[in-house]
Amino acid sequence: MTKSLMDSVGQLTGVGPKREQALNHLDIYTIADLVTYYPTRYDDLAEKLPSQTADGEKVTFKGVVASAPVVRRFGYKKVMVTFRLSIEHETIQVSFFNQPWIAQKIDIQNEIAVYGTYEQKKQRMTGMKIILNEEENDMQAVYPASKEIRQSTIKELVFQALHTYANLIDQELIPESIRRRYQLMSHGEVIKNMHQPTDAVTAQAARRTASFEEFFIFQMRLQLIKQMDRQNQGRPVNFDNDELKQFITTLPFELTEAQKRVVNEILRDMRRPQHMNRLLQGDVGSGKTVVAALAMYGAITAGMQATLMAPTEILAQQHARTLGNFFAETDVRVELLTGSTKAAARRQILEDLVAGDIDILVGTHALIQPDVLFHNLGLAVIDEQHRFGVKQRAKLREIGMNPDVLAMTATPIPRTLAITAYGEMDVSIIDQLPAGRKVIKTEWVRHNGYEKVLDFIKSELAQGAQAYVVTPLIEESETLDVQNAEAVYQELADVFGPTYQVGLLHGRMANQEKEQVMAEFKANQFQVLVSTTVIEVGVDVPNASVMLILDADRFGLSQLHQLRGRVGRGERQSYNFLVSDPKTQYGIERMEVMTQTTDGFVLAQKDLELRGSGDILGKRQSGVPEFKVGDPVHDLKMMTIAQEEAIDMVAKPDWDQDPEIKTLVELLDETMARYRNFD
Ligand code: ADP
Ligand code: MG
User: Where does the record place the Helicase ATP-binding domain (predicted)?
Assistant: First the structure.
């Protein structure tokens, strides 16, 4: 049988069904997976001195045994072996607990290496392991293992694979021209040096190339997906430019330069016969809705329909109303379809929709039911796209006749991640707020400053303003959330009443009830709205100028930013108060960052730095994939280069016929197959 890197790891000697399963659980299926199962770190036996070691660090010291081991027994079954170890000019004390046999293994004057936890102040190490063999490589690979499989087993299997598949591993992955341009190692060298580096410098260099390989393969995959997407049958949306221009003059405001730019990008894309897959990114309040409205109007002037899907009922209702207002003077017909649309009304809507009598259908995921059929759908808009799963997004693309898709997000993915998260989409960015917006003043107060904040709110209410009060988020329990909100509501009704009215909104209310409360608040029938986070997205009450968030450290930065975006939408100077007593440095920094910037992109970047890319927004939601070696945030430049090279590569005809990159092509085939099965 001819060997291939796509062979199952079950082919290796010593791997039976059970071990194979254990490997699978570590995402190791093929030989290619195994040889790129890189060590997370190396125990460097050569370099460290006690004086260079931090307190509490796990470390390996190599030295000479300076005193004969002393064995002490105490208590029942407790044994301690102690000896002194000289490392160059420093001497430390080493103790092993409950490993009495250690004493037999070491002799005074012997050169050994000891791995353990070092206590800097006491110059003492609690040993975990001794390494006697001086012949061993200084750089000892450490693999992430599991309960089912030991790290030494992984090490042996990697070793075996490196030998058995040596000539295949030596085959190049990245074209030589690219390798030379960026001074990368050959693929064979990378693999070998990742697992068995001779020294730290080589390990570092191998890691650099391994990151690039990983990014390059990732970007190649995105480019291929993009290519498949483009080949997907799309239809040109031949909009009427004059009608659009005319419509724009009827808007109640002048578009910002950024809005004009993205409208052009979107319309240009829609006119092309290929399928559009575009992301519209813009901070809260940047005015994405009107951009979407113009794109939808474009489709309508081309004789097609449009749809807008929002993540919540409140948002869908609001969008339907906003669009209704935009199009009030036109004959565009906007309808709303959600889970609470009554059966008779629903039937009528479906009938009119398929007949082409409805131009824009706004709704929640109730839109993607099999019986919702369009007459001629040209454009599908998804608001807050990260709130929908991959499946729902894919489904929306399948309704109608593969409509152009415009996804919107107000969760600014920092530029450093956008290239990774949205690599297969084209991105339009609104990087400007409408003129005349006053910067929201943000203040962080500790709980003992709460009363003062309430006094301040009173003085704002006296001037005719309205205020939101967001109650703490309790992740585990919606019941507690609601109880909390009710308690705060009672308290504030006392504080602000009877002069001002207080309202309550929470997740346990029926949709109709919520809608009612929002409508009343918008109509200023009450002045203070106490709420759980249900008001988080999209809600628009321009007269509200205070956003008070209790226990603010329970929220993520992005969420705080979204909440803050509920104010500052009108003429009034707006205020955001964050009440919290964070217990950690991380918590304190987050509060401080909030007071320092109102730029969502800056916040998202900061969030990323504080949390690390692994955690941003929850991986699944943001769509940011995990990498084995590379860090897409810190190695952004490398990711950018990998993208550019991948774009160039797939643009060349027959690039996949080049025998030099057979391994790459094989790998891509495999991953593309996995991608297709993804949904
Ligand atoms: P978001 O991007 O957060 O969805 P919206 O589309 O809800 O923002 O817009 C926020 C508010 O700004 C709305 O009241 C909208 O009418 C208004 N708006 C949008 N564009 C402009 C503009 N160019 N000039 C003035 N106001 C605008
Ligand atoms: Mg919006």
Answer: 269-430
